[in-house]
Fold each of these.
Amino acid sequence: MTPFVERIMFNMKAIILDLDGVICHTDEYHYLAWKAMADGLGVYFDREINNRLRGVSRMASLEIVLENYTGQLSQAEKEALAEQKNELYKESLKQMSPADLSEEVKSTLDTLRSRGYKLAIGSSSKNAPFILQQIGLGGYFDAISDGNNITRSKPDPEVFVKAAEMLCVPCAECLVVEDAVAGAQAGHAGGMRVACVGDAAAEKAGDYNLTSFRELLEVVL
């Protein structure tokens, strides 16, 4: 580890983690729910389009899905469609269990906590508390900032800034962990360092681009 990395991590006190794609994976549940809703409208929807929805709020995601819709919908109709998708998604989430939390993720989180770091979730999902409960992490995190307490989705930094406020830790002393480029951009916009996994790491969107979740332990001493 270089002296530069050691210096910028010296005052870090908290780690704010995205949920989907970082702690667990619900992409397939999202895809199937959006696909069912889109099919009902006769709108073309595929996995490539679905990938554009990662880290994006429900209503903003709906607007992306509706790019291929030629009709006109009122705001009330759009809200009903978003709720329809969410009900399909929530029903599928009931299948989740602690088996959906990998040993690598859980052991890494436990080690970070043992090192004295505050841990928070920063997710655009309104279902974050339910998902955490399903996978055995209900009550585990020091704070949860999610779609229930924000008005702007990533790449706006609101979700991460609010998480830092909940933790009573300055943004400059927080590390964000993300798998989506929009999420990495949000972390940087909030004045935070960003560690990326998955697609965002492949795009080199973070200050630290990891090949596994466990590598966080090499960044965070």
Amino acid sequence: MQNTDNAIAKATVLAEALPYIQDFSGSTVLVKVGGSVMESEENLVSLLGDIAFLDAVGIKVVIVHGGGKAISRALKESGLEPKFVDGLRVTDGPAMEIVRRTLNNVVNADLVKKLQALKTNARPVHGNWMFTAEKITTPDRGFVGEPVEVDVRIVNEMLDAGIVPVVTPLGTGRDGQLYNVNADSAAAALAKALKVRKFAVVSDVPGLLRDPADPSTLLPTLRLSSVAKLKEEGIISGGMLPKIEGCEDAIRAGVKKVHLVDGRMPHSLLLEIFTREGVGTEITE
């Protein structure tokens, strides 16, 4: 009887999700996967399972990933000390090559392999193929750029062919120089260019907290009109700055829904898309 009850409970959940599946089928969802989420195999398996599910029910998924901790480890192994300014990595010439190699050959390759093991037709897209970047000069962080143009042709062709693009946050300057691009900024630029239905930023925090040490201070909703004040108060700072600023840009460009999602919560992405309650912080105009 217990097995039957469990089966009925599972069927009930699927039935409740049906209207959301029908609503989102054929839509495009962009998922930014933070490097911190990928540090936990359990969290990553859950998230990739959610992405495989979305793909299986006809939702077009694009992934942009970070890789900060993997890059920091690779830098230290090479005798280089990781440095950050305002949440963005300082990247000189030797560091740039390590960033490129780690993002393309390690982090991206691992995500693609794991998704393919879930029967998802995932393929790598090196961001420097599509992001035109300009050097950030104030302050100068070396070969760190911000995306100023996005050529979405390759991503659209892949989506039309039923492929899940897995994108690295790299850009190419107009002079051919390779730039390290913050993954949140890259994801937001791509979300804007694709005009996605939903943009989910998945990291290892519950969302935006008034007090980073107290999960009960979660802000379930953040309006753009409140962002400036929260920056002044120091609530939006450090690594949260590029996340929120990227979300702001995406909303102003017409992206309908932007969410900060806690990747440590099992099946957080499915909860966000297929339930009324959702999770994390929803950012609205």
Amino acid sequence: MRRIFTIILSILLPMMAICQQSDKYMRSSLYSILLSHPEQKMDKEITSAFMKLKTPDKFNNHDLSVKYITTTKAKGDDLEQMISSFLYVNQVPKRMISKWFNRDENGAFDIDLLKERGLYGTSWQDNQISKFTIRGKAELADAGEQLIGNTFLVVNNVRYIDKEKNAQIAKIILSAIASFIPGVGGAVGDLIKNVVDLASQIANLIAGFTVKITTYLYQIEWNDEVANTFYNQYYADKKHITPEMKATFESDTTLFRIKYIGRFTSTSSKTVARGIQEPSDVFRKVLARAIDRNIVDLQRKYDVFKVKVPVLAVKGDRLTAPIGMKEGITATSKYEVLERVLSKDGKTQYQQVGVVRPIKDLIWDNRYMSVEEEADGAELGYTTFEKVSETKEFYAGMLLREASFSGSVVDESEDD
């Protein structure tokens, strides 16, 4: 055990000593899966669009090789049970842990990914911690809780809502408009006809492509028991791995678990045609915005899933942060300003030092394809906030977290 702590601490601790003004932070990690319904209309288009979506900016990409699973016609609780069964049978929690430690075909582990993502750590007040002290081990446990413990899985059940009747009406209207253009012929007429045909096709898709999405949220269970067992029995690098250790790890079906947090259901909002150049853009735009909306609502409902973002700059009573409408910001939003501190036992805590709210005309529209549709605020690159209250002067590198309170906030530990 001492050897494992020595190896990991000797690499992790120096990298955690980052200056207080750093705007880097520890992101949560996210694995996203789609439930595919082959019997459903538009399923092929939905699956294709989903496969091209990127992980939301505020998460580390923790995707595994399986990005979608084919489902039966199960609904509600039966569907939730089907998902749980899939996760257990395919040992998804173990695979997610294996990704954290870069397990290779021989069963050997390393901490390269932990080092890479650990570079997002912020403001460690005491950077002279010996790797052999109790405090040093507390730091390692803390890093594990923040990095591995904040690993989430979202399973998106997407169902197409058929609005073909409305789509046909849109097509008729466009065709009627074209018929009223007088004196058009030849190459110009063909061009207009092609444009109208394309517009009709896109209008058909826009009017007809609406989806209902239920997003199921899960979180990896990483605690002292799991960590100690893993480091003592399974962790070995390429020089120390044995066939017996490899086989024992692979046969363990009980240590690594994932817990169900909750779910949220929404229907995609009306799609704006501006910026859409081809039919496939419609699917990606609708899916991306609907999934982003569900993630935002899950974060509002479950504090453990809330994202913290760094303050980029502070000037007077204003500050800026790389967050916007994709994360659910509106003119009525409020955000806690958090300072990261260490408790006496070496655990990370986030202490509220103030509250800010976005300035209405300076909210960044960072939703999918907002630039293409020339949306107001799409060019900003960040949202500007104004101070509501403070107990300590703000500085770049502090963190923002959406508030779910009325009045003051009690200090919240990362491992709550």
Amino acid sequence: MKKKYTLKVYPSRMGREVYRVIEILGEHSLDDLCGAILSSFDFIDEHLYEFCMDNRMYSDCSYQSDPEDDEPSTSERIDNIGLEIKQKFFLHYDFGDDWMFTIVVQNITETAKKMAPTVIKRKGFIEQYPDWDEEEDDYE
């Protein structure tokens, strides 16, 4: 049997207006989780990120997408990080724009099924680059 995690994910301070509920297996990595989160919000995956297990950016208790020395890596499997029901942690994405996604562990169950990370509920919409104007990139 495999562990299946049900996670509510929302941009910080937007939990009632904009969120996604994602199911993911414990055998998937934090990289897979980041990809599922970004995809669910229609973000372009082109920046560094970290999972902040103590809910603070750049802390010693985080998993890095580009680790240095002995830093924990986002290639770690979800089963190996010790998540518990009701636990809250952050995905800090794009160290320039500092997107913060709050992740709450809603449920942990057993399953025999193999599955890709799946969005099972969604509400609302946000834009990754709300002030970006495509005309600004048109160079003559």
